[in-house]
Amino acid sequence: MEQKYSNEVQVARNYYNSKDADNFYYHVWGGEDLHLGIYETEDEDIYSASRRAIDRMASYAQKIDENTKIVDLGGGFGGSARHLANKYGCHVTVINLSETENERGRKMNREQGLDHLIEIIDGSYDTIPFPDSYFDIVWSEDAILHSDNRRKVISEAARVLKPGGDLIFTDPMQTDHCDESTLEPVYKRINLSSLGSPAFYRQACQEENLEEKAFEEMQEQLINHYSRVLKETEKMEDKLDGLVSQEYITNMKTGLKHWVNGGKKDNLTWGIFHFVKS
After folding, report:
1. Domains: count for the chain
2. Could you tell me which residues are beta bridge partners of residue 95?
3. N or C: which end of the chain has fewer CB within 10 A?
């Protein structure tokens, strides 16, 4: 039976299932990931910066080894799951909305010999199909913003996390002091009326008995990443002909500029949150 989704979630599903989005993220965004990277130079390749972001997040975990069970909420092509499984031998479950991305992810799992450690589930992360206190780590990279009920996502994350377990996530956010009127183009791009904020996530997690251990804010990396993707898009535009429509590329370039400008005006930010379940 096909799952029923809210209108906002269905819009996100349709977007990421589209040929344009699938080909754009695969060919431009580094081939493994859909999340932001941590850059050491402005011209560093997106793939390397994305790997660095995963490693920085993993450094907050209390322990990751072959006995660790991780759930990745909104894991895209499953690149983070493969990196973690390959490095630590841990078991990772990816819950992701796009069937198109998931098929690509499963194929890469098999090709890299990691399908025995990674399970990819078609579905929305606001209803996680696992029992209470099941996972050692709940992980998410730049995916919660797409939910129309982020509070429920945090509640579900807390529910499936073992006592003493780690919630580690990143998300592009509006700053606590942002001028929301300037973010209308960004809201329109993701078909929502708001973004999460550091204050929102702190409050939501506190209500779920999740204790904040760290928030490493890296607003400059939001600017760096979207600037880098814009530059790569412009560089590869001719090569994308036939793979990605010109309308999609034009809209993407406009959208990327909105993210960059929002960061430069201190209305958007990004960083790594780490909470532990009491």
Report:
1. 1
2. 73, 121
3. N
Confidence of residue 30 (pLDDT cuts 50, 70, 90): confident
2 confidence band (pLDDT: 50, 70, 90) = low
Can you tell me which residue has the tokens 């999460």? 196
Quote the mean pLDDT of the chain. Answer: 95
Tokens linked to 31: 């081939």
235 to each of 16, 51, 116, 193, 249, how far by Cα in Å? 23, 22, 37, 32, 12
SS3 assignment, position 241: coil
Residue 34 amino acid letter: L
- CATH code, 83: 3.40.50.150
As a whole number of angstroms, the distance between CA 233 and CA 227 comes to 10
Residues spanned by the domain of 43? 7-277
Total-model pTM: 0.96
- Has residue 2 been placed in a domain? no
Residue 1 placed within a domain: no
Cα separation, 141 vs 209, in Å, equals: 21
